[in-house]
Design goal:
Length: about 500
């Protein structure tokens, strides 16, 4: 335990606070003088060890519960090349790894689910080792990455492919320019793992499942148009580099992108986006070329008075181990700011305790909780979505549970291309039909944007109305009228 951890921890005997400092505290040279100070009587009730669980990180050889990894050493498991080589990319590979741990019925359920899924399968050994295979149906990691047919629900009738309409705001391939001063650069369409709920499944998913709307090539030659566009638009100050996932860019291409964008005078902020720290944290520790490239670009930006950060995506404390803590500490010590963007997912983090624990653990390892997204309306994952009302209640629980700068903003990225809105900033919300109505004046002041709760979670009256297709237009019209926005165009 570090000196900071020791200072933060209070020792208890039979739930009563000890009226003296622990020997561990007294042994810290800078704190020895406190041993002579009478400890004031506490105003707060003593906390249990459970309340400090966010400070605990699994440092065991947890991967050895998987028969195929039973003899894999820590050194080998931490090698990012082992993670890439042994990731499950097909149902056959997945069966080989987990068949001894689950029932044949579950494997068949997975196979049937993958046949209907809009996304490819890619599942890292790190994640696979963290799933509770004794209860895979309810495991928060399984839910995010491996579909089971028995849990799938029909898509909402108002769902559309590319619901965020990113391609409508793409002036050139590989680039989205929606907000006035911000652009989204998409230099590749591959990831270290594939999330079932990916809002960009229109470009990441298998072409066998649907025709792709776009393809983002990891080719510097094809990036030149995007770079030229960014250089030609003096209002753009902020660029997000995503995809796909920047974890899958080589170190040389991290440098190329960073150096090119930082050289454009009006660009002041870069954000490299990656799910990687949550699904393969060891890459930061063992792919030193990649990590150093990121660190060097951060340093280069700082020397030019510009900010470069890493934005990542943890959804559950189940994804976090001591490997994660060590990786995040490495970035922190080298001056890399890391911010987190979660998605609110049914069965993963959709209760106050789960979200509070996630926010506290991220904060403890110097990852700033930044956003919690209302689950996008994505094809094939209806059972993962939650209601807007659920987000409102969870936000109330999270706010005040930790420092304000570590309290995430809960947002809805509204369908139709309106961008991110505070989840509670709707003009109207019908909890019966599940329709929330938003405006986004900075994007388009003439349009109104709608988000739809999953029908299965609505009250009986709402479910009954949606079951009648002749009611759909009336449901939408009533919500827009109740918001007083009938004069605007429906996105």
């Amino acid at each position: 335990m570090s000196s900071l951890e020791a200072l933060k921890r209070i020792d208890f005997v039979h739930d009563e606070p000890v009226n003296e400092l622990s020997q561990e505290i007294c042994d810290i040279p800078e704190l020895q003088h406190l041993s002579q100070v009478e400890i004031p009587s506490p105003l707060k009730d003593p906390v249990s060890d459970d309340a400090l669980a966010h400070r605990d990180f699994d440092a065991s050889s947890f991967w050895q519960v998987i028969p195929a990894f039973a003899k894999v050493s820590r050194e080998e498991f931490l090698d990012h090349r082992f993670q890439v080589k042994n990731s499950a990319k097909s149902i056959e590979q997945l069966k080989t790894l987990i068949a001894p741990l689950v029932s044949p019925e579950f494997l068949q359920d997975v196979e049937n689910g993958l046949e209907r899924a809009p996304m490819n399968l890619r599942f890292s050994p790190y994640l696979l080792s963290l799933v509770d295979w004794k209860n895979p149906y309810d495991d928060p990691i399984r839910i995010q990455f491996i579909p089971v047919a028995s849990r799938l629900l029909p898509d909402h009738p108002k769902l559309s492919f590319d619901s965020l309409h990113e391609q409508d705001d793409a002036p050139v391939p590989n680039l989205v320019h929606r907000y006035y001063d911000k652009a989204l650069f998409l230099p590749l369409d591959v990831c270290p793992v594939y999330c079932r709920f990916c809002t960009r499944s229109y470009s990441i998913g298998p072409e066998a499942a649907h025709g792709k709307l776009a393809s983002f090539r990891a080719s510097p030659k094809e990036w030149q148009q995007a770079f030229a566009y960014l250089a030609s638009r003096p209002e753009i100050e902020d660029v997000v580099i995503s995809g796909g996932d920047t974890y899958n860019l080589s170190a040389s291409r991290i440098r190329l992108i960073g150096e090119t964008l930082l050289a454009i005078p009006h660009i002041r902020r870069l954000r490299f986006a990656s799910k990687g720290p949550a699904v393969m944290p060891m890459k930061i520790l063992t792919d030193t070329d990649w990590s150093q490239a990121l660190i060097d670009i951060v340093d280069m930006g700082r020397q030019r008075g510009k900010e470069v950060a890493l934005h990542t995506h943890f959804n559950s404390v189940n994804e976090i181990t001591d490997i994660t803590r060590e990786a995040m500490e490495h970035l922190f010590k080298n001056g890399v700011t890391v911010r987190n963007q979660s998605v609110l997912i049914r069965g993963v983090n959709d209760d106050p305790e789960a979200m509070v624990n996630l926010v506290r653990q991220l904060s403890y390892m110097n990852v700033q909780p930044y956003y919690v997204y209302q689950h996008d309306m994505v094809k094939g994952v209806e059972e993962m979505r939650t209601r807007v009302s659920t987000s409102l209640e969870i936000e109330r629980a999270v706010r005040g549970s930790t420092a304000g700068f570590n309290t995430p903003t809960f947002v809805t990225d509204v369908p139709g291309g309106g961008g991110k809105r505070d989840v509670h900033s709707y003009d109207y919300y019908d909890e019966i039909t599940g329709v929330s109505v938003y405006r986004s004046p900075a994007v388009d002041e003439e349009k109104v944007y709608l988000y739809f709760d999953p029908i299965e979670l609505l009250p009986e009256e709402g479910q009954r109305r949606w079951a009648d297709s002749s009611q759909h237009d009336a449901i939408v019209r009533e919500a827009v009228e109740a918001a007083g926005l009938s004069h605007l165009t429906l996105a």
